[in-house]
Design a protein that fits this description.
By secondary structure, this protein is an alpha+beta fold. Helix content is 26%, strand content 49%.
Length: 170
């Protein structure tokens, strides 16, 4: 269970960093259900998972606030800029005793679909990894399901977690 919770925390943190990148005059993600494929390399076992998330304006704002909180607490450098139709970011953050240096690129329509790449180098290695590549491919698939509310994330195993509720817990 703790491994699953750790994955959720990492996922929400990455979503917050994505939202932080989106804060540069980009259209908001369209309200509704998003399919988000997250692929990771840089380990002996590359992984890929797809989540679905019910999004509205408030959910995007919460994700952005989570990203901003993480950056303020953990990062000594955070630069985000537009390069044509891409959003590019560079950051240096502390994760325990490890310095994580990341280069991020997002591109796409943002209100219907986007692609993101986060390349991170760790010094000293983090959990045996020197570097990591995380890829995001997200697309809007329609209105949220009748049994979903904004903030609901449906994990690959079917577990449902709501980031609004996570934010409210002490």
């Amino acid at each position: 269970m703790s491994k699953r919770l750790g994955s959720i925390v990492v996922l929400v943190g990455l979503m917050g960093l994505m939202a932080e990148a989106f804060s540069i005059e980009l259209p908001q993600r369209k309200t509704g259900l998003w399919d988000i494929k997250i692929s990771r390399t840089g380990t002996n076992r590359p992984s890929s998972q797809t989540i679905q998330m019910c999004i509205d304006q408030k959910t995007d704002n919460i994700a952005q606030q989570m990203g901003e909180s993480f950056v303020k607490a953990s990062c000594s450098k955070q630069q985000i800029r537009r390069e044509g139709n891409r959003i590019v970011g560079d950051s240096v953050c502390q994760i325990g005793e490890t310095t994580a240096t990341s280069h991020t690129v997002f591109s796409g329509e943002f209100d219907r679909a986007y692609h993101g790449e986060i390349r991170t180098k760790y010094s000293p290695p983090l959990m045996g990894k020197n570097e990591n590549l995380t890829l995001f491919d997200a697309k809007w698939i329609g209105p949220c399901q009748a049994d979903q509310k904004p903030g609901d994330m449906i994990m690959p195993n079917g577990m449902k977690i709501n980031i609004r509720e996570m934010q409210q817990k002490p």
